[in-house]
Amino acid sequence: MSNEFPTDQTAASPAQLGAVVASGPAAEPESGREVPVAVAKALGSRARQSRASWLAGMVAVVLGLSACGGEPVDESAPSWTGPPPTVTSHALLDWDASAVVLPIDAFGMSPREASVVFAAQNILFARCAGVSESDMTNEIASSAKMLSQDYVFPMRLYGFWDAAYVARNGFDLMSQLLADKVFYAGQSLAVDPEVRQRCYASPEVAAMNIVVPRVQTSEDDPAMLLSRLSFEASDWTTQDQRWVEASESMGRCLGSQGYSLEHASKDGPPTLSVEWSDSWSVEQRQSAVLASAQCNDSLGITQSLGDVGATYQQFLIDEHEAELLAVRVEVESRLERAHQILREAGLE
To answer: Residue 209 domain-assigned?
Structure first.
């Protein structure tokens, strides 16, 4: 897997979870490969994702993950009032996949569930596009491949972490996302662009979009509530004094190794990202990021801030429980329909 850092792209957005939305392709400027619109928005078109260490502006998302930052500030979200809450909920860290699971994720699709729904949507898209029998056979095979891989991606909600993962895989999240993954329905089909867009927008295909925080394809998407609450909790997390203290600790740790924190935005919270020069080689950047991840791990920053974020999420979950349960009912409905489609295709 390449460790190359794409060079100048727009700010990245956060990532979370472990699923990618089937929402159609978007050109990736550096490599020329197509990536799904939601992935492009989630990562931004910016390959230097590791430098956006706070909530860097997100539009709609996946998996959505920022290389080094948290989630975007929702300007309409109310500020947390009162003292910072005592931690009562916890983030689950997956050190193998370098992923972070937060409480809100329970109301969306798990990586396995997303794979099931995604595979079914691929078949629906092929039917909508009116493909040949041989192409349909190929798409069923493509759906089988989707079923064989869970959409779990590395997340940098609180800076680079999981040094062992960084050492093994490097720090270029885009390359990791693109490696051996199918990202959107009909990805392998050569169909007319108008047909592609019509089928993506068709009610039957759209009704099989995955439902995960930070990934939505329209304002009325069930994932919108998950995203809004996730962003709001993340906003509160960056306003918390524990975020400030984590940044100060990171600065001291990086300083002891000859590095420094990236300069914080005037209007944003303190950063958790290591600073580097554009003139540095890939190897120098990799060393800086590895040092940053080692500091993060030794200080327990991703776990501690993840727990803070989880606590804020749980507060919002309690406030919106009925709405969130309705989202989960919709998830179960999509899963039931997805399994039916897969059985009809001989995949279950």
So the answer is: yes
Between β-strands 34-36 and 99-101, what pairing exists: parallel, antiparallel or unpaired? unpaired
On whether the CB atoms of residues 89 and 307 are closer than 8 A, the answer is yes
pLDDT, one tens digit per residue, over 193-227 is 898 889 988 999 999 998 988 666 666 788 899 99
- What CA–CA distance (Å, rounded) separates 154 from 160? 10
Number of domains in the chain: 1
State the Cα angle at 235 between 233 and 236, rounded to 5°: 65
In which band, very low, low, confident or very high, does the pLDDT at 63 lie, cut at 50, 70 and 90? very low
84 falls within a domain: no
At position 305, the amino acid (one-letter code) is L
* pLDDT at site 222: 87
Amino acid of residue 269: P
For residue 236, pLDDT over 90 is answered with yes
Residue that has been written with the tokens 């089937």 in this structure: 22
What is the domain extent for residue 339?
25-72+91-344
> Which tokens is 168 given?
């093994």
Give the separation between CA 82 and CA 84, rounded to whole angstroms. Answer: 7
Task: Report if residue 10 sits inside a domain.
Answer: no
DSSP codes of every residue in 231-271: HHHHHHHHHSHHHHHHHHHHHHHHHTTT--BPPPPTTSPPP
User: pLDDT at position 288, please?
Assistant: 94
pLDDT band at 152 (very low <50, low <70, confident <90, very high): confident
DSSP 152-207: -----BTBS--HHHHHHH-S-HHHHHHTT---STTTT----HHHHHHHHHSHHHHT
pLDDT in tens, 177-190: 666 566 678 877 88
Residue 93 has pLDDT above 80, yes or no: yes
Q: Which of 162, 121, 123 is nearest to 139 (CA)?
A: 123
Is there a domain that residue 152 lies in?
A: yes
Provide the pLDDT for residue 248. 95
Q: Could you give the C-alpha distances from 270 to 181, 273, 295, in angstroms and in order?
A: 34, 9, 16
Question: Which residue carries 């524990």 as its tokens?
Answer: 242
* Tokens found for residue 301: 């920053």
